[in-house]
């Protein structure tokens, strides 16, 4: 693949995205980052995030590699760029699934039949997005998390490492599901849910 890929974010997630992109066939990668300089896994960091528009030339792909969902949304809303879909070759994507622009699916993940994944989502290493799921824009499913069939994950929501969401459950917009939680009923927007079965943690409450 002869296209240049510009990765916005040179942290750990950025490196994982670059690794997937190289395995897809990209050969030339440039990072942009507001806090890092020099090189990242051998590729140049060419300046801050706001330099992205200057690199647009009709032959370049872009992807946002920022794990913070709200920051990823803010950056995406500030730029009108050709956003690439980055899918690690070991991920299993049904031909009947849909992936939105800017979405990243990492190694060993599965996105099954009739699932719809929105724009700029992250389906992380080994995560399972089952049949008929809907992930709204800027949602994230962490490593080894599993979503049963017909789950809906609201925009900006985050499913933690190893969490399980029962089939036919809706995770509200902006929710955070803690690592290892088991969600057996729908959650309210903006809540933080932990435990087995998952319960809503109020601010300041002990876990």
UniProtKB/TrEMBL annotation:
Marked site (Increases basicity of active site His) residue numbers: 132
Gene expressing this chain: wecD
Residue ranges annotated for the PglD N-terminal domain, each copy included: 5-76
Pfam families: PglD_N
Positions that bind substrate: 33-34, 67
NCBIfam families: NeuD_NnaD
Binding annotation for acetyl-CoA: 161
Record CDD domains: LbH_AT_putative
GO terms for MF: transferase activity
Name used for this protein in its record: Acetyltransferase
Keywords: Plasmid, Repeat, Transferase
Catalytic residue positions: 131 (proton acceptor)
InterPro entries, alphabetized: AcTrfase_PglD-like, Hexapep_transf_CS, PglD_N, Trans_hexapeptide_repeat, Trimer_LpxA-like_sf
Organism: Vescimonas fastidiosa
């Amino acid at each position: 693949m002869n296209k240049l890929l510009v990765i916005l974010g040179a942290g750990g997630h950025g490196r994982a995205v670059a690794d997937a992109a190289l395995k897809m066939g990209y050969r030339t990668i440039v990072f942009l980052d507001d806090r890092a300089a020099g090189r990242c896994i051998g590729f140049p960091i060419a300046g801050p995030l706001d330099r992205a528009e200057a690199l647009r030339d009709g032959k370049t792909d872009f992807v946002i590699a920022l794990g913070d969902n709200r920051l990823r949304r803010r950056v995406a809303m500030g730029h009108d760029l050709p956003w690439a879909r980055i899918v690690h070759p070991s991920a299993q994507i049904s031909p009947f699934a849909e992936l939105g622009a800017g979405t990243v699916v990492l190694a060993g993940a599965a996105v099954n039949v009739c699932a719809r994944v929105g724009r700029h989502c992250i389906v992380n290493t080994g995560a399972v997005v089952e049949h008929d799921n809907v992930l709204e824009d800027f949602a994230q499913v962490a490593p080894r998390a599993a979503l049963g069939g017909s789950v809906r994950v609201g925009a900006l929501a985050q499913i933690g490492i190893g969490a399980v969401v029962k089939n036919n459950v809706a995770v509200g917009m902006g929710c955070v599901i803690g690592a290892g939680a088991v969600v057996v009923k729908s959650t309210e927007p903006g809540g933080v849910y932990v435990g087995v079965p998952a319960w809503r943690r109020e601010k300041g409450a002990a876990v």
